[in-house]
């Protein structure tokens, strides 16, 4: 009887832990700025395995903060095992961005980096905000 009860308790602990480990994790992205570019109202979510590829899903407003300078702005996102992906805004405007990034080689994404930049053309280096890192933590 004690062994059966211990088995039931162990199964309950394992199932409870698995449910907590697979829960989506959400948070806010602080305002990111660099000369000529701003990203605000940002939120993110790490999706669990089986939901949207276990992706890092993010949204926010990308603003061309110096619309008369003739340069476009973009968001760069990097998930583990991949290089930076670029998502361009609209020159002289604020646009809502909403994207998901993931690695096809993994069941879920647990590390992501995000920054915003102003595209200054091929002759001058782009200027970017400090990179923010996000991690999926098991609860």
Strand content: 35-45%
Shape: elongated
Order of helices and strands: HEEEEEEEEEE
Low-confidence stretches at least 5 residues in length (pLDDT < 50)? 8-20
Major beta sheet summary: 5 strands, antiparallel
C-alpha termini separation = 32 Å
Question: Got a strand count?
Answer: 10
SS summary, helix count: 1
Helix content bin: 10-25%
Tell me the Rg in angstroms: 20 Å
Instruction: Output the structural class.
Output: mainly beta
* Overall mean pLDDT: 87
Any overview of this molecule?
The protein is mostly beta strands and 139 residues long. 14% of the residues lie in helices and 45% in strands. The protein contains one helix and ten strands. The protein has one helix at residues 2-21; strands spanning 25-29, 32-34, 37-46, 56-64, 72-79, 85-88, 94-101, 111-119, 127-128, 132-135. Strands 1, 2, 3, 4 and 7 form a five-stranded antiparallel β-sheet that branches. Mean pLDDT is 87; it is low at 8-20.
Short description:
About 15% of the residues lie in helices and about 45% in strands. It is mainly beta and about 140 residues long.
Comma- or semicolon-separated keywords:
single chain, 139 residues, mainly beta, 5-stranded antiparallel β-sheet, 1 helix, elongated
Helix-strand layout with pairing:
Elements: H1 2-21, E1 25-29, E2 32-34, E3 37-46, E4 56-64, E5 72-79, E6 85-88, E7 94-101, E8 111-119, E9 127-128, E10 132-135
């Amino acid at each position: 009887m004690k062994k059966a009860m211990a088995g039931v308790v162990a199964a309950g602990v394992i199932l409870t832990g698995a449910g907590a480990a697979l829960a989506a994790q959400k948070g806010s992205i602080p305002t990111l700025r660099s000369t000529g570019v701003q990203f605000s109202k940002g939120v993110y979510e790490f999706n669990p395995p089986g939901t949207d590829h276990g992706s890092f899903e993010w949204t926010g407003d990308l603003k061309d903060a110096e619309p008369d300078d003739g340069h476009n702005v973009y968001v760069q996102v990097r998930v583990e095992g991949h290089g930076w992906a670029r998502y361009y805004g609209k020159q002289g405007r604020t646009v809502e961005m909403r994207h998901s990034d993931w690695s096809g080689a993994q069941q879920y994404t647990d590390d992501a980096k995000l920054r915003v930049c102003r595209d200054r053309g091929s002759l001058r280096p782009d200027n970017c905000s400090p990179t923010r890192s996000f991690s999926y933590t098991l609860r």
